């Protein structure tokens, strides 16, 4: 990855969409930082990296603010959440999930397999 590595969650999401998802990910996604004691309680920032949910037709991706210091980890986290967006019914470790992780790995995106 070059100096053009995206710097924002939206930039990372768009980069992932272009590189790995053939532009098929939806564009109605907004990104929120989840602070340890902030207003957002959808994720446990001590344990979880991110969560995504759909509200009023818009995907909201909550990202652990601790990831701000680790852009590549953030990128991979957004990739993981992008699978949830693309396959909302897929369960971690299920057949659809595994197939998608393997597809992305085949393209050089080395997601953890959970
Ligand atoms: Zn997940």
Q: TL;DR of this structure?
A:
The protein has 114 residues and is α+β, with helices and mostly antiparallel strands. It is built from three helices and three strands.
Overview of the molecule:
This protein is 35% helix and 17% strand. The protein has one domain (9-106): Zincin-like. It has 114 residues and is of the alpha+beta class. The chain is built from three helices and three strands; from the N terminus they run αβββαα. Strand 2 (50-55) and strand 3 form a beta hairpin. The model has no long low-confidence stretch (mean pLDDT 88). The protein has a three-stranded mixed sheet, with helices on one face. The two termini are 24 Å apart.
Task: List the topology elements.
Elements: H1 9-20, E1 29-34, E2 50-55, E3 58-64, H2 71-86, H3 95-106
Parallel strand pairs: 1-3
Antiparallel strand pairs: 2-3
Overall pLDDT level: 88
Q: What would you call the structural class?
A: alpha+beta
Strand tally is 3
Uncertain runs are: none
CATH architecture: 2-Layer Sandwich
Q: Provide a count of the helices.
A: 3
Provide the list of bound ligands, each named once.
Answer: zinc ion
* Largest sheet properties: 3 strands, mixed
Strand arrangement, largest sheet? 1-3-2
Q: What is Rg?
A: 14 Å
**CATH topology-level fold name:** Zincin-like
Coarse shape? globular
């Amino acid at each position: 990855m070059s100096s053009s590595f995206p710097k924002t969650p939206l930039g990372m999401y768009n980069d992932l969409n272009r590189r790995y998802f053939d532009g098929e990910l939806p564009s109605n996604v907004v990104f929120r930082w989840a602070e340890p004691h902030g207003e957002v309680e959808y994720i446990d920032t001590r344990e979880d990296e991110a969560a995504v949910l759909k509200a009023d037709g818009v995907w909201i991706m909550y990202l652990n603010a601790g990831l701000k210091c680790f852009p590549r980890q953030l990128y991979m986290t957004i990739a993981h959440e992008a699978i949830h967006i693309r396959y909302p019914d897929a369960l971690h470790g299920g057949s659809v999930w595994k197939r998608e992780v393997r597809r992305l790995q085949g393209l050089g995106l080395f997601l953890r397999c959970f």
